[in-house]
Amino acid sequence: MADFCYNRTMRIIILAGGPASGFDRQIKALPNFSDSYFVGVDRGAFRLMTAGFPVDLAIGDFDSLTADELGLVKDYAGKWYQAPAEKDDTDLELAVLTATEQVSEIREIIIFGGLGGRFDHEIQIFYLPLQARFASLAQKIVLMNETNHISFRGEGTHVLTKIPEMTYLAFASLTAVSGFFISDAKYPLSKTDFPKNFSLSSNEFLDNKPVTIGLEKGIVAVIQSRD
């Protein structure tokens, strides 16, 4: 499907079919949001269209759309691909695989509509960075809704900045983690090994100043959230 590829650094915005209240406001709050590659997954394509955003790619089995709605999406989308209902990949996995073929330099991949719905879908999306085929994209994937901003960090030292509307800072490992530390947060942590998955919740930024974390091995989710 990669007959054309954008040869510049771009953000990929994916709207999946799950709950996505306020996605339009969140997209418009992104810097230079219009310079993004917009992907609608299943009903997400229809929601992008009706909200007035481009749909560069519509993809999925579209089982949640009526025939009339699907016809509108086909006419509106730059590209569309209807996948069979029974397949090895989820609609979202297909969306990530296909979208990354269209953009040569990816700044980030922001996924809306992936949190707060069916838990089996939610946990599958949360663990996307563990799939070998997405490993190079892991630290570019962001999951967002109105109350959560989730990104992923691997080996090295990382400086975190506060998302203005979020209150809390938490961490959850996707793998065993070695040498994990937190500094300049309300609750710092000296280098610690976690041989099993862990979660550290309800931390906070101090006076909106950056927080530094690091790990020697593993993958950690960085979760900024609010009530």
TrEMBL record:
<dbReference type="GO" id="GO:0009229">
    <property type="term" value="P:thiamine diphosphate biosynthetic process"/>
</dbReference>
<keyword id="KW-0808">Transferase</keyword>
<dbReference type="GO" id="GO:0016301">
    <property type="term" value="F:kinase activity"/>
</dbReference>
<dbReference type="InterPro" id="IPR036759">
    <property type="entry name" value="TPK_catalytic_sf"/>
</dbReference>
<feature type="domain" description="Thiamin pyrophosphokinase thiamin-binding">
    <location>
        <begin position="156"/>
        <end position="221"/>
    </location>
</feature>
<dbReference type="InterPro" id="IPR007373">
    <property type="entry name" value="Thiamin_PyroPKinase_B1-bd"/>
</dbReference>
<dbReference type="Pfam" id="PF04265">
    <property type="entry name" value="TPK_B1_binding"/>
</dbReference>
<dbReference type="InterPro" id="IPR006282">
    <property type="entry name" value="Thi_PPkinase"/>
</dbReference>
<keyword id="KW-0547">Nucleotide-binding</keyword>
<dbReference type="GO" id="GO:0006772">
    <property type="term" value="P:thiamine metabolic process"/>
</dbReference>
<dbReference type="GO" id="GO:0005524">
    <property type="term" value="F:ATP binding"/>
</dbReference>
<keyword id="KW-0418">Kinase</keyword>
<keyword id="KW-0067">ATP-binding</keyword>
<dbReference type="GO" id="GO:0004788">
    <property type="term" value="F:thiamine diphosphokinase activity"/>
</dbReference>
<dbReference type="InterPro" id="IPR053149">
    <property type="entry name" value="TPK"/>
</dbReference>
<dbReference type="GO" id="GO:0030975">
    <property type="term" value="F:thiamine binding"/>
</dbReference>
<protein>
    <recommendedName>
        <fullName>Thiamine diphosphokinase</fullName>
        <ecNumber>2.7.6.2</ecNumber>
    </recommendedName>
</protein>
<dbReference type="Pfam" id="PF04263">
    <property type="entry name" value="TPK_catalytic"/>
</dbReference>
<dbReference type="InterPro" id="IPR007371">
    <property type="entry name" value="TPK_catalytic"/>
</dbReference>
